[in-house]
């Protein structure tokens, strides 16, 4: 998530009401999670396990809950609760704006588009040319949709990330300030949900086709020309490379990569990253030939015991 202008470290510290370490004029351009952080960004960390990763990341500023030596060329924001302070940044720079119109005045829709009844299109949405949006689709604020895109009934683009921190009092939500980008020539079936990124974008790249009742989590990137069948659930921060086929009722762990050209057979649990140009099956996931041989051997052993 980029800020509307360059801010100084001191300005951000004053906004959050925290101490800072580094030059008061140190430039700050945005804030992001660790997996998408860039130079000029703030990243937050609140667990000792991840201190080193955050301090050595591309982030220019680290929002942290411990006094540590400031790495050269970086700044620190010392916070009692980095999680909550990161939320303050999202609330300040990407606040929720209610809408009382089915199609926001600030939305821009290209030529030759068909928008069916009861479609909701939020603030600052951008829709390209020759798109068809079927009834009861919900498109949250700041979503970007390319050309020649079809979205079927009941689909939701841009719902919040499923991201919570457990407290003694319950669960605190990490606010979502990112977006969803749907590139050209994408088809999305009925009753799908594609969540917005926490601070970056969830992206469906050119030519990909998504069946009905598919869930795609926050900050996930679906590559070019992928096929994803019904009732698949893809977790947050997953990378699906180009030309991947995922058959029905597949589920994935978060933070994994599915390699280019891979085929994931139905009802597989993708528990780890897998290489491309191979076919996979089962839970835990294995190459399909190996998994099917294992199943045959198990049946043989059971039969022999009888």
UniProtKB/TrEMBL annotation:
CDD domains to which the protein is assigned, alphabetical: LbH_LpxD
GO molecular function: N-acyltransferase activity
Family annotation (SUPFAM superfamilies): Trimeric LpxA-like enzymes
Keyword check for Nuclease: no
Top-level division of the source organism's lineage: Bacteria
Name of the protein described by the UniProt record: UDP-3-O-[3-hydroxymyristoyl] glucosamine N-acyltransferase
Pfam family, one: LpxD
Source species: Lutibacter flavus
Keywords: Acyltransferase, Lipid A biosynthesis, Lipid biosynthesis, Lipid metabolism, Repeat, Transferase
Spans through the membrane: none
Gene Ontology biological process: lipid A biosynthetic process
Annotated UDP-3-O-[3-hydroxymyristoyl] glucosamine N-acyltransferase non-repeat region domain residues: 27-92
One term under GO cellular component: membrane
């Amino acid at each position: 998530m980029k800020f509307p202008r360059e801010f100084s470290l001191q300005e951000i510290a004053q906004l959050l009401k925290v101490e800072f370490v580094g030059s008061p004029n140190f430039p700050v351009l945005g804030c992001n999670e660790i997996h998408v952080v860039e130079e000029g960004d703030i990243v937050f960390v609140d667990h000792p396990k991840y201190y080193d990763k955050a301090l050595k990341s591309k982030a220019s500023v680290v929002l942290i809950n411990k006094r540590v030596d400031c790495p050269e060329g970086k700044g620190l924001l010392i916070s009692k609760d980095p999680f909550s302070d990161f939320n303050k940044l999202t609330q300040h720079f990407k606040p929720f704006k209610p809408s009382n119109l089915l199609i926001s005045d600030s939305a821009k829709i290209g030529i030759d588009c068909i928008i069916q009844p009861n479609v909701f299109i939020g603030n600052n949405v951008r829709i390209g040319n020759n798109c068809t949006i079927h009834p009861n689709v919900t498109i949250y604020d700041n979503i970007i949709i390319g050309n020649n895109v079809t979205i079927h009934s009941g689909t939701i683009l841009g719902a919040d990330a499923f991201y919570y921190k457990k407290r003694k009092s319950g669960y605190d939500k990490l606010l979502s300030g990112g977006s969803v980008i749907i590139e050209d020539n994408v088809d999305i079936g009925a009753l799908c949900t594609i969540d917005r990124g926490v601070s970056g974008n969830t992206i469906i790249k050119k030519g990909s086709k998504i069946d009905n009742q598919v869930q795609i989590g926050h900050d996930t990137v679906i590559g070019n020309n992928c096929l994803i069948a019904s009732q698949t659930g893809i977790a947050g921060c997953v990378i699906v490379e180009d030309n991947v086929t995922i058959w029905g009722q597949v589920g994935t762990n978060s933070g994994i990569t599915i390699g280019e050209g891979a085929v994931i057979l139905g009802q597989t649990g993708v528990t780890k990253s897998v290489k491309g140009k191979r076919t996979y099956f089962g839970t835990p996931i294995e190459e399909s030939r190996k998994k099917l041989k294992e199943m045959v051997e198990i049946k043989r052993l059971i039969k022999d015991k009888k």
